[in-house]
Amino acid sequence: MRSLSVGCILNQAHFLNARLADGTVADLAIVDGRFSAIAPAANAASPPPGAVDLAGQLVLPAFVEGHIHLDTSFYGDTWRPHIPCTNGFDVRERVAFQMRNLEQAAPMAERAKNQIELCVGHGSLAMRSHVMVDAAVGLKHVETILGVRERYRDLIDIQLVAFPQSGILSSPGTAELLDEALKLGCDLVGGLDPASFDRDVKAHLDVVFGLAEKRGAGIDIHLHDRGALGLFEIEEIVARASASGMQGEVAVSHAYALGDISAEALARAGESIAAAGVAIMTNAPGDHAFPPVAALRKAGVTVFAGSDNIRDSWWPYGDGDMLNRANMIGYRSGFYEDWELEAAYDVVSHAGARALGLEGYGIRVGAKADFVALRAEHVPEAVVAVPKDRAVYRGGRAIARNGEMIG
Ligand SMILES: [Zn+2]
């Protein structure tokens, strides 16, 4: 990339020769952080002062990190070797490992900052983070992460989910703490395996949907339960989302059960999930069945993605790069054709924006000029090549290059 001249007019920016997702090459004008004009590349003899020539780089809207845990990662901290569960995957045991690890971790604000900069550096400028709330930690995690969010508000839009990591009924006092967390500034109320963790689906969901209604908050529930049990819980969540008029405001994260059931059952579930406007989040985990992305999208379900855990007590993987996540989703889904690779990209971009209810998303006049410029001919190539050479712009201002924050 070469800059044609130094400096630019206050609150205005121009980018030349941007390759858009549809293959056209365009000049982009930005005023007050939003696209004011997008026109076919003019190759003008005298471009506007300060214009940046993108020289045909692919320009994509900034990625959407739809599920992360800013409070529990050790990214940038001491390496924590993974501890296996004693008798197969067990959420309760993993939570206990996590509590032990966190006692010895670097300060939370520092670890959260490391993770945010990792994500922004790779091009995610909107994020949804779950933040642990339970009787042991109270609101300490929420208060810390709210402070971190405030410090980074000029660089990234962060939604926070008050997340009952130790259950709601299993950890007395948590319902009241979740309510406090929403009052303090969390945007959504979370949940955790209402059946296997709290052993009372109705009571668990009564609290979650009750708090959402009381505080006008969205809902994003962690659901690891498998097979028929998990499907039953999804059906309960879908029914409540419809009954409470919360279409577009409810998400189920992981929803592994959707990867366990027959094609016929999945088609029926997909139809009702789509009709209720419930979004499904997957990170395409390596050793689990996971929601079939293509079949759900075909049914009209919004499927979005997140890194979930990065270098934490749950697993050692994660790099904060949502383009790499699109690659993993495509790889695990058996996506080979261009339209399928484009679907994998959609999961980490436009579908993520829909799931999070983002305003002004995309490369279009009037949208926020939050974008990534990278070296790829088109979206399918970007998904398979995952170029590290990329620049990240917030409101038209360069904030990261090649994975590193600028300034
Ligand atoms: Zn999670």
UniProtKB/TrEMBL annotation:
Gene3D superfamilies: Metal-dependent hydrolases, Urease, subunit C, domain 1. It holds the Pfam family Amidohydro_3. Its EC number is 3.5.4.1. The keyword Lyase does not apply. GO terms for molecular function: cytosine deaminase activity; metal ion binding. SUPFAM superfamilies: Composite domain of metallo-dependent hydrolases (SSF51338), Metallo-dependent hydrolases (SSF51556). It is an enzyme of class 3 (hydrolase). It comes from the Bacteria. Residues 51-397 form the Amidohydrolase domain. The keyword Disulfide bond does not apply. Keywords: Hydrolase, Metal-binding. InterPro entries: Amidohydro_3 (IPR013108), Metal-dep_hydrolase_composite (IPR011059), Metal_Hydrolase (IPR032466), Metallo-hydrolase_Enzymes (IPR052349). This is Cytosine deaminase.
